[in-house]
Design a protein that fits this description.
This protein has about 160 residues and is mostly helical. The chain has one domain. The protein has nine helices and no strands. The protein has helices at about 15, 20-25, 40-60, 75-85, 90-105, 110-120, 135, 145-150, 150-155. Helix 5 (about 90-105) packs across helix 6. The longest helix has 20 residues, at about 40-60. The radius of gyration is 16 Å and the shape is globular.
């Protein structure tokens, strides 16, 4: 796994994967391993910062010529949070799938429709979210208890 960054945040099971000493020696602040819930101000700050960095990385790596600012505007970050249950790794997958849909349609601008299609493709299919917030709007924010439910075993068999 040399030279490959690995991120285990988003699931509380990650704490058992990483050696505590290694985490403490490489992190200035304690790492929050669980999901980022919209009701917690600091969680949404972290989530929004991640979306902003993702926008920059998409251009930096030549995936799109211009920043897909949609990812940081309006309800989009909240919708991504609901669809991913606050798991940053799943946000990256949703955005990747949305970009693939955009390319398949021979389009050059990322839209809400692409994000909605990406949510249909994975989070809804595996039961991670109960509705598509890009279609219905962020009408229901799951509780902290629902966010902490980790159906990783179920997802693996979906």
């Amino acid at each position: 796994m040399k030279r490959w960054p690995i991120v285990f945040v988003g699931t509380q099971h990650a704490e058992r994967v990483i050696f505590e000493h290694q985490v403490l020696t490489r992190s200035e602040e304690p790492i929050k391993f669980g999901p980022l819930h919209p009701s917690i101000k600091r969680d949404m700050e972290i989530f929004n910062e991640f979306c902003g960095r993702l926008v920059l990385k998409i251009v930096e790596h030549g995936i799109l010529p211009e920043r897909p600012t949609l990812l940081v505007q309006g309800d989009t970050p909240l919708c991504l949070n609901i669809a991913s249950k606050g798991r940053l790794g799943l946000v990256a997958i949703i955005v990747r799938d949305a970009l693939e849909l955009m390319v398949l349609k021979s389009e050059s601008v990322l839209t809400v429709e692409h994000l909605a299609g990406a949510v249909q493709k994975l989070p809804l299919r595996i039961g991670l979210c109960s509705y598509n917030p890009f279609i219905e709007g962020p009408v229901h924010i799951p509780s902290m208890k629902e966010y902490l439910r980790d159906e990783a075993e179920e997802f693996a068999h979906a």
